[in-house]
Amino acid sequence: MNVLPPKFDVKVLESLPASEAILESHGLGQPVAYWDSLRQARRSPVGPRWSDIDLMRVPPNLIQGTMVVDVLMDPLDFRIRFWGTGLVRAFEMDLTGERLSTVDHHGLMAAFVDQAPRLVIDAKPQFMINRVSVSEDRALELPIVRLPLSDDGEKVSGIMTVIHIRRTLGLCHSPSQPGDFSAVATTAAQLM
């Protein structure tokens, strides 16, 4: 199941910061609050350790759309530690254990590869909506939360990404008819 059919290449059409209202409407505020409570308890400006995260505290409908990557340095790369079952079903591939520099992800991880280095540098959460095309007549709007993890409390050593996959799959638009991004104005820096 690691290979997508050739007709299933994914193309990122646009990527925009997401507002708090959009996050809440997709239930993504809860994992952010959980992550922030662990970050504060640890007194880390960056985030909790991956070992601090108890996925049973994340709502079950969000665990399936969760991905966790290890950040590898020199050169920068990402290895997928956890790939939720909803991602496997939605995109017909399992990337668990794969390095993004070596696996053919058929464009699915293009926005992550483009945006995650900024998270590693800034050590701040990212709240995004990525609009991706999965075929000539189908696009998905993916509300995404990316949360930094830190083994030492100072540098980003991992990233936990959460997508409300069931709600997302219901938000289909034709690529020629963009979705309503009017509420997509608040940046991640303003939310934290």
What distinguishing features does this structure have?
Beta-Lactamase; 192 residues; globular; 7 helices; alpha+beta; disordered C terminus
Please characterize this protein's 3D structure.
This protein has a single domain (6-191), classed as Beta-Lactamase (2-Layer Sandwich), CATH 3.30.450.20. Helix content is 28%, strand content 27%. The protein contains seven helices and seven strands, in the order βαααββααβββαβα. Strands 1, 2, 3, 4, 5, 6 and 7 form a seven-stranded antiparallel β-sheet that branches. The longest helix is centred in the first third of the chain and has 14 residues, at 29-42. The chain is globular, with a radius of gyration of 16 Å. It starts with 10 loop residues before the first strand and ends with a helix. Mean pLDDT is 78; it is low at 1-7 and 167-192.
